[in-house]
Amino acid sequence: MYVVNCTEPINSSLYIEASRCTTKSNTSSSLPTSHFYFLDAKTRPSDFNQACTIEAEAPIMVENITGMSTPDIYKKLLEGVWVKWSRCQYQSCYKPDVLKEILSRLKFAFRNYMDSFVHFLFRGPHVYYDINDSIPRRTYILCLAITGGIIFLRSFPGIICLFALVTYKWRRRHLSMDDTIEEFLQSQNNLVPISGHYMAIKLLGKSKGNGQDFINEVASIGRIHHANVAKLIGFCVEGSKQALVYDFMSNGSLDKITFTEENKNTLGWKKMFDIVLGVAQGIHYLHQGCDMQILHFDIKPHNILLDENFNPKVSDFGLAKLYSVDDSIVSLTAARGTIGYIAPELVYKNLGGISYKADVYSFGMLLMEMVGRRKNVNAFANHTSQIYFPSWIYDRLDQGEDLELGDVSNNEKAMVKKMVITAFWCIQLLPSDRPSMSKVLKMLESDVELLKMPLKTFHQLPLETSMEVHSCENSNDESSISLDTGTITS
Fold first, then answer.
1. Mind listing the pLDDT tens digit for each residue in 114-155?
2. Of the candidates 412, 422, 414, 413, the residue with the CA atom closest to the CA atom of residue 390
3. Which of 40, 213, 255, 298 is catalytic?
4. Among candidates 112, 7, 97, which has minimal Cα distance to 52?
5. Of 84, 117, 146, which residue is a domain's last?
6. pTM to 2 decimals?
7. Which residue range is the domain that position 464 belongs to?
8. Last residue of a domain, one of 84, 116, 142
9. Looking at the 3D structure of the chain, how many domains does it have?
10. Which residues form the Protein kinase domain (predicted)?
């Protein structure tokens, strides 16, 4: 029950006169300056007269005072109220609906907050709601809208700052590749361009790894001078565009000679053998001819270029890595190469550490394709036993059968057999069973009678892999790939 003080008489059934509380003024007028009334505590805010303010709130032992007389109200006030409390531990007083009670209290507090908010805005009567009272829906919406607007206005500068920070970070990340390449070029003062003859320009596509493929090529091939390694004449960088300038190779890449039907018979076995020797010498130079060993990781026919005299040049160093000559085992964060030429240890970590033997394996697979004049995995073979060429040709040699070379001389047969036996040693499953490139050169230059067949322990990688593959753009028909794996270390 409320006791309200009004500045004018109120004629309403909701208001019960509290005549004992009337105050006389000192003037000659007998009219009271204040009018006091009893008002039920459940009265809605909209029923409050603007001329009245709440003076006090008094407890009374009735649910509703509407219709009661002033003496009746005084009698109820004289009866007093019952007060009941208890003392107990939390565990003994706990009730299952304690969460409901807490939520109810929060709701009650929120209601009174909204009433205070409206009173502050519109200077209307200030009403404290009972816990079971309900308030108009529009009051909820008004308070939530105003509160939300204040919160938004206070947080808007922070949102703007956050957006600016994200934009800045994105731009820095986008430009980091250009910064990395620019920093590298400024540190390479000894790289002087050469001109005056035909050149081939290799344009790099969308570069990955902050321009690392460009850096790999320039840092590795830029320091190499060998007859069987492609020669870097110069390079050009403009923003995110990168170009490498090489000697022009008029006869294209080895795969055009090896795999296309119209060119298969262009070169005889003697010239093919010379190409094999040249490629082996180029790889041997990469491994042992420089102050740093260079592991190519992408030896395949597409990356062997032929000049006007069909001399081979090892090219495309986008996946290459430089290591100290003292490192017999190296570390990689991801496997790299082309499916069909990747050494097994780059995919299966339990076969041994990664070393220059990975390039030896790729060379062996290239050698097999040059002998067969087709890819090692031939989906259009007439017999299923010929699908994996190394396995098929091993069985023929092991059983003393002819290699079906056609009308060739004995010297050519000997050269082909040396190439095949050397390839079998190069593609052994375990890296420790493969020869070094210097040993490969000795095998190719020795008599075929001195070579013995290795055990059939080479491995056929699956035609399809469940590992995630990222293609690297290449000017050739096939793409080099990087397989996402765990860290591979010695």
1. 666 655 555 555 454 444 555 555 666 666 677 777 788 878
2. 422
3. 298
4. 7
5. 84
6. 0.56
7. 251-483
8. 84
9. 2
10. 170-451
